[in-house]
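To illustrate this point, what follows is a protein record of this kind.

___
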Amino acid sequence: MAESAIFVWQGTDKQGKKTNGEITSANPAIAKAELRRQGIKATKVRKKGKGLSLGGGGKPKPADIALFTRQMSTMMRAGVPLVQSFDIVAEGLDKPKMAELVRNIRNDVSGGSNFASSLRKYPLYFDDLFCNLVDAGEQSGSLETMLDRIATYKEKTESLKAKVKKAMTYPIAVVVVALVVSGILLIKVVPQFEDVFAGFGADLPAFTLFVIGISDFMQEWWFMIVVAILGTVSGFMAIRKRSRPLREALDRIALKLPVAGSIIEKSAVARYARTLSTTFAAGVPLVDALTSVSGSTGSTVFEKAVIKVRDDVSTGQQLHFSMRNTGVFPNMVIQMVAIGEEAGALDDMLDKSATYYEEQVDNAVDNLTALMEPIIMSVLGVLVGGLIIAMYLPIFQLGAVVGG
């Protein structure tokens, strides 16, 4: 079967007006035939160049996958056939590499592969959980419903990640900017004052001498300091990526941090509840669902806890009892799971728990942002204001002597 490509066309419509656009087809002849069926007389049809797609606008991100899933769900709920849904979604995507990925999946499906098998060829973008849920939807004949659930799950997960990232990156970004500004002042501005002070012929205040000493050190060693900081950060990230014990230790410390620790804990619980609710509602057995859930919490502490829960559940223990034994899950979610197990509505109770903790994370992030703003302003004031005071202190003292 010939591989489809995008063709750019120009022509006239039924009223004789000039028009143009793009169409996905196997070759120019088929493209012209399809345009004729649409009432368009094509005067020029050529294959779209791939120059822009090499840069690709970056590789597809989880947010792009969430958008793709939602669009596929919408198309199929509207009664559009699967292969045609791929074409429509691909043509509406702005990111060329994402559109290319969708077309590759479309070609696999049109060639006879099922949807889940096609997705498994791209594990970088579609994890086991995603593929297993699509497979369950295909097997049960409810693919459009399953895609809707996956889309909701991906959207809420990405929204939660964005909120946690906002909470973590905002103060770090401001502090980094403050340090950069302070570094520029020490390297470029303070030396100008130092030249002025050299002509005073008087002893400088201790605070001013301290700042000048830091400035001299920064002027001489700033490049080595930057290299050392970058080397330390990159080395730490590399070691963290390879060392699971280090990640576990850092995650345990993160959970104990004031304010931020609570956000991390609530987000992990929300991911656990959301993922387990989605997989269990899809008909995945509980033990298999817990296996998929373990890697989605975003914390190695919770990952170990979920694996322990899975092992306990596989021996016949109730889910809420196994969760309680780990000592990491909040009492509220344990009680909600217990009610769900008793009432036979576990997926519904997990969904409610996920919604509750997602709202808790949202509120906590807003509170943290409001709390951090005055703290950050204080830090900026101390750093920049301290440097200004140190530089103007000799001038104030000289003015007092002259005035005396």
